Amino acid sequence: MSDAPLLEVRDLSIRFGAVTAVSSVGFSVAKGEVFGIVGESGAGKSAAARGIIGLLPPSARLGGSVRFRGEELVGASQARLRSVRGSEIGYVFQDALTALDPVRTIGAQLVEVLRVHRKVRPREALAAAAELLAELQIADPERTLRSYPHQLSGGMRQRAVIAAALIADPALIIADEVTSALDVTVQRKVLDLLLGVCAARGAGVILITHDLGVVAQTCDRVAVLYGGIVAEEADVFALFDRPMHPYTRALLQSMPRIGDSAPFRPIPGSAIQIFGELRACPFADRCDRVTPACRSALPPVQRTGKSTHRCLHPLAVPA
Amino acid sequence: MLRYILHRVGQTLVVVLGVTVIIFFVLRVMPGDPVQLMFGEGDDANLGESRLRYEQQLGLDQPLPVQYVRFLGEIGRGEFGNSIVRGGEPVIEMVARALPITVELSLFALFIALAIAIPVAILSALKQNTLWDRGGTAFALIGVSMPSFWQGLMLIVFLAVWVPIFPVSGVMDPRMSIVRITGMPLTDALLSGNWEAAWSVFRHMVLPALTLGTGISGQFVRVLRSSLLEVKHQDFIDAFRARGLGEPTIVRHMLHNALPTTAVIVGMRVGALLSGTIVIETVFAYPGMGLLLITAINARDFPVVQGVVVLLTVLVILSNLAADIIHGVLDPRIKLSGGRGASA
Q1: Residue A131, C-beta contacts closer than 8 angstroms, at least 6 positions apart
Q2: I want to staple B124 with a disulfide (CB 3.0 to 4.6 A). Which of A62, A88, A175, B133 is the partner?
Q3: Do A55 and B235 touch (CB under 8 A)?
Q4: Which residues of B fall below an 8 Å CB-CB distance to A?
């Protein structure tokens, strides 16, 4: 039982009209694991994350399978999805400035989430909210609960957003670029708080980011998304030490490091938007190892040990 | 808050002063004068002297600036004078009789307007660009553009003459009487437990209130719909969904976010509502401020017109103030404060 993943995504595809945001994405997240999803803007990170909880605009077409604790969520009823959201899968929004209702107090919003999912009295809910805020190192939880979002600083607001996602004690947290909107100085602190609380509760985390540095320091496993596919999924150490996919390597090389004297190497070209069915490797146009075979079909998923990659010409030959 | 209200009251005084200037001089520039209307045409030669005496008695023989200053002084003391025409009845008494009737009618109309506008706007906004939305827009356009006197007459034709559900005119069945408590007929009837009279008053109020209400609800629909649409695409609405809230709750929160702007518009429309009563009360022979004003204007009954207009002005300004206060209560980001540049 301990081997059964908390979340298993298989062959997930999301299309908005003619645009394919995500095609046949698969990964799994174990209980208590911190799973990173990295990729450029438009790689399909957020779409995939929202697809997991069924929170896509009505125009989106969702296919494939998302199993949470063995239960299929794709095609589940709205009522079931509503009860999963918040209470079993928490979603932390990217922009704390806009993810809180401006006309109600933080306390009202936190209590509301708890009371939707659990039968608790308002007083108990408020106490639970205060406790969670204290756990997130907010100095004066009572006052924060009485505050309106515009009265708080960015970091405080982001912690309130995190609290709203955590208060009903979900087993999985999806954190979508949680720190992008914050000052660099508080980014790290907020992220550590989030991961700390999740670890204390044994919850799994999907950390969506474009910052490889964050991934290296916090994640257990990583999936690299490009053009709506998982280019590579691996253990964080394996990924950084021996990237298999040329895109992963390019991404690692484009990351500036302190002490580097070699010229900075950006990835040539820019990210692509996929229309219709994906029939070639999406990275083919920017790849230095490209062959005609790369353009004739989407490379299949290749599995080596616990890692997967989708490249016909992987960099390292698996041992 | 107190400073803010004091600040606004100060502004009100300036506005009222301006209104008195306009109403006073416009009335006197208008062709036709009250004494002549009273004495009738063609008798000038014979009644020259009694006319003159009457004018003296009313102070109408004085130069205009003197009359104006005297008028201001009276208003300052809270005196609005006596009617020239109606046997010298004090204006205050006439207004005290008419104002509660109009206030009750307007509140009822406002209630009808909101009762129509809120559901229509929600439906339009949630089902944007569908048939529902188009229907709501069409309704709003009809409501805004249909002349109210025509709408009132049509309602009378359809619902009072062809299908006599509602009475044609008046406040209530003339055979009934109500104990006067607040002066508002429906409220008084209910307070005194006179159910029969209350029902009669209610039936008399429906058509004029409906006419007034649909007229202003069109605008409410437009404003509320657009602010709901603005809120609908905000991140926090998605965040609510991600926290597992149900759609009815989300709509309630959307409304809470959209209402502050609408409250301001509602407050601003109270002026339109009151000017609407001038037409509607005439059509329905409803003895409120509107009818009082029209009769007074026709008779050139200067003191009554002046008194009514000044009071209506104060009423409009007060309702704007109320709307601003409600806005501040609904939206915590608004801070009501007096003086310059203090708004956040």
Answers
A1: A141
A2: B133
A3: no
A4: 234-236, 238-246, 249, 253, 256-257, 260, 330-333
Question: Would you call A29 exposed, middle or buried from its count of C-beta atoms within 10 A (0-12, 13-18, 19+)?
Answer: buried
Q: Is the pLDDT of residue B341 over 50?
A: no
- For residue A33, the one-letter residue type is E
- ipTM field: 0.86
Q: How far is the C-alpha of A304 from the C-alpha of A298, rounded, in Å?
A: 18
Q: Where are the domains of chain A?
A: 7-309
A100 touching B (Cβ < 8 Å): yes
* Residue in B closest to A91 by C-alpha: B242
Q: Which residues contact B66 (CB under 8 A, 6 or more apart)?
A: none
The beta-carbon neighbor of A100 closest among B236, B245, B330 is B236
Locate B306 and state its tokens. 């002046």
Residues of chain B found within 8 Å of residue A112, distances taken between Cβ atoms? 243, 245, 249
Residue-level pLDDT at A182: 77
State which residues of chain A have pLDDT below 70.
Answer: 1-3, 317-319
Per-residue pLDDT reduced to its tens digit, A120-166: 999 999 999 999 999 999 989 999 999 999 999 888 998 999 999 99
The Cα of A305 is separated from the nearest Cα of chain B by a number of Å equal to 35
Nearest to A145 by CA among A136, A155, A133, A137: A133
CA-closest candidate to residue B205, choices B167, B177, B175: B167
CATH number among 1.10.3720.10, 1.10.8.1000, 1.20.210.10, 3.40.109.10, domain B95-330: 1.10.3720.10
Label residues A47-60 b or e (16+ Cβ within 10 Å = b).
bbbbbbbbbbeeeb
pLDDT in tens, B209-239: 999 998 888 889 989 999 999 999 888 998 9
- Rounded to a whole number of angstroms, the distance from the CA of A16 to the nearest CA of chain B is 17
In this prediction the pTM is: 0.81
Kindly report the nearest CA distance between residue A246 and chain B, in angstroms: 35
CATH topology of domain A7-309: Rossmann fold (3.40.50)
Chain B hits for A95, CB-CB cut-off 8 Å, are 235
